[in-house]
Amino acid sequence: MAKPEHEFFPASTVPFTPCEGKVASLTERILASDSPGVATRILRFEPGTDTAPNGVQVHDFWEEVYILDGSFTDSRLGKTFKAGDYACRPPGMEHGPWTSEEGCTTFEVRYRAS
């Protein structure tokens, strides 16, 4: 299955839905999706979000993340990342959990490399 073809459209027409896991204040707007986990999405941390109940994240796909607004703190690293920061995570890389006092919005592209 391949991601669907989309010409420009207002991303705001795609609703935010709860993310998989145990944190209700973490929601996603799936813009395009392929196989499970592989997607282009906007991820939203509401103010006060703590993703500790979801634990450390590890997955079998590549993930590129750009912070659009706000900030979050990686609890394991003790580092805060803010708007304009970028990460590229290969399969198997541990990351998180995070807290976000002010809230945060990220743009993410997740994919499998052959």
From TrEMBL:
<dbReference type="InterPro" id="IPR025979">
    <property type="entry name" value="ChrR-like_cupin_dom"/>
</dbReference>
<dbReference type="InterPro" id="IPR014710">
    <property type="entry name" value="RmlC-like_jellyroll"/>
</dbReference>
<dbReference type="Pfam" id="PF12973">
    <property type="entry name" value="Cupin_7"/>
</dbReference>
<protein>
    <submittedName>
        <fullName>Cupin</fullName>
    </submittedName>
</protein>
<dbReference type="InterPro" id="IPR011051">
    <property type="entry name" value="RmlC_Cupin_sf"/>
</dbReference>
<feature type="domain" description="ChrR-like cupin">
    <location>
        <begin position="28"/>
        <end position="107"/>
    </location>
</feature>
